[in-house]
Design goal:
Length: 98
């Protein structure tokens, strides 16, 4: 199974750090539905279980946004606050863009 094309978007956060999102788009044209995918504690948006979900949903007409938590996108973040509580707070703020 070939993973769908992912487009990287960087969100600049109010605390001076960033969050990387990898977006995949519906294979059926413009979509009004989006699936937000969160990886596991040591994962990232390139892991097979994330790209597999993206493939399945883009084939069904959904857009997919895979969130890379801090320190998981392949580039070190500017700040070192990596607790799950901080990650969830960042996620909540970031979802406001959708």
């Amino acid at each position: 199974m070939k993973a769908p094309k992912q487009y990287r978007y960087r969100l600049e956060l109010k605390d001076g750090d960033f969050l990387d999102l990898d977006r995949s788009y519906s294979e059926k044209g413009k979509s009004r539905k989006i699936l937000i995918v969160l990886h596991g504690l040591e994962g990232n948006a390139k892991r097979p279980y994330v790209t597999g979900l993206a493939k399945h949903f883009t084939e069904k007409g959904w857009d997919v946004a895979a969130v890379n938590f801090r320190g998981c996108s392949g580039e070190m973040n500017r700040l070192s606050s990596l607790t799950m509580q901080v990650q969830l707070k960042i996620l909540k703020r970031s979802l406001a863009i959708f």
